[in-house]
Backbone:
């Protein structure tokens, strides 16, 4: 039986932990709202962009654009977007596991892999693998579109130099507050967007009667790098929201676990106290009986 | 006067959505103006100053990198950043300009193509900001 004081100290300790996890939960939920707002304000831009891309690429099958060039794949570059901080459940480790599987798969196909990480957790995981080409750390908290631009510049450069023949991005997609899953997408070469029904054309009733300045090919050359920015930025936004959602859930679980533990410990404490009281009573009664006798 | 609907959208959200008289924008092939009922038109936008007129008042925006689409009496700009001239912090833009000039000089010596491109882009943005701020004040 542990001493009364020990149990009391332990209860106080667990209570403090619960306070911290609860605070973290609330901070995460506030930050999640911010991240979701950020995603929300990005949506109109992304949607319009995709619409125009679809419309443009529909009419240009034979365009010879370097960013769309499909080559024999010898080297695959994987861009991994994780959070900078831990304490968010299995969110980061799920992404890392997905990447590890992917690396094994590519290597079994005889392709070599290089890795670019965004977010400290991914960097830590792949630092020793010898595949890490570049790491972007400590930007997940306050990133903006220019951070995404820097990253996409860098991977484009490598692709154009022939250092990589295919670029994948793996990130934690935000499905809902309760569910975030690792997602893999191909960034480069850019695939033509399937000819979606274009809303702008439908509205105006005009089909393909746009005046282009400069010509569509040149517009594409400007648009493709921007499109890449959009995709990288999108992945970062998803991870930003997912991270906070995952932390919210993890911290909620931790708070609940603390509560259970406190309940158990309190029972233990009461039992110990009861035992002590009983022991004392026995002493007193025993003493009284001895005096009488 | 017939009006055209102007929308400027950036990754951080819409900047403006309003009916205006005329829009002037920095196209890659030179500056162009768009009035109401313009034919469908698609052009890339370079870093520069966008202006529009409404109620006899001209307003200026700094825009960088993107494209514009005209259709159905509506002009949409999808740009990476957009700021109203009157909101621009001139001191900050000045500092950014100096910084970019320094970086450009360094990059030219070292002949690093990527850094040069970046420094040039930064310089252009800073100069467009200054111009937009200046025009908004005058």
Residues:
């Amino acid at each position: 039986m542990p001493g009364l004081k020990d149990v009391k100290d332990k209860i106080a300790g667990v209570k403090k932990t619960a306070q911290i996890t609860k605070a973290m939960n609330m901070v995460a939920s506030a930050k999640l709202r911010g991240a979701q707002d950020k995603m929300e304000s990005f949506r109109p831009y992304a949607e319009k962009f995709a619409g125009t891309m679809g419309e443009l690429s529909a009419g240009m099958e034979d365009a010879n654009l370097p960013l769309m060039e499909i080559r024999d794949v010898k080297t695959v570059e994987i861009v991994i977007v994780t959070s900078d901080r831990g304490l968010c459940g299995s969110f980061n480790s799920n992404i890392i596991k997905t990447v590890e599987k992917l690396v094994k798969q590519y290597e079994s196909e005889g392709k070599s892999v290089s890795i670019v990480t965004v977010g400290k957790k991914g960097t830590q995981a792949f630092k020793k693998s010898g595949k890490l080409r570049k790491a972007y750390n400590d930007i997940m908290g306050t990133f903006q579109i220019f951070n995404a631009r820097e990253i996409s510049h860098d991977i484009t450069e490598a692709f154009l130099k022939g250092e990589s023949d295919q670029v994948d991005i793996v990130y934690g997609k935000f499905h809902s507050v309760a569910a975030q899953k690792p997602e893999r997408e191909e960034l480069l070469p850019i695939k033509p967007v399937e000819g979606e029904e274009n809303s702008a054309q439908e509205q105006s009733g005009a089909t393909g009667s746009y005046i282009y300045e400069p010509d569509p090919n040149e517009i594409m050359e400007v648009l493709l790098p921007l499109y890449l920015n959009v995709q990288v930025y999108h992945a970062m936004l998803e991870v930003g929201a997912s991270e906070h959602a995952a932390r919210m859930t993890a911290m909620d679980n931790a708070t609940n676990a603390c509560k259970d533990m406190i309940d158990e410990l309190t029972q233990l404490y009461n039992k110990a106290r009861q035992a002590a009281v009983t022991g004392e009573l026995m002493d007193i009664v025993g003493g009284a009986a001895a005096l009488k006798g | 006067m017939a009006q055209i609907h102007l929308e400027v959208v950036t990754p951080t959200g819409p900047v403006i959505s309003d009916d205006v008289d005329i829009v002037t924008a920095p196209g890659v092939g030179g500056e162009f103006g768009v009035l109401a009922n313009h034919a469908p038109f698609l052009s890339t936008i370079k870093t520069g100053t966008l202006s529009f007129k409404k109620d006899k008042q001209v307003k200026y925006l700094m825009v960088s990198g993107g494209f514009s689409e005209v259709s159905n009496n509506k002009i949409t700009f999808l740009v990476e950043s957009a700021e109203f001239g009157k909101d621009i912090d001139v001191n900050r833009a000045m500092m950014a300009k100096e910084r970019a000039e320094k970086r450009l000089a360094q990059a030219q010596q070292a002949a690093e193509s990527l850094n040069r491109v970046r420094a040039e882009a930064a310089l252009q943005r800073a100069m467009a900001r200054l111009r937009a701020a200046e025009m908004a004040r005058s």
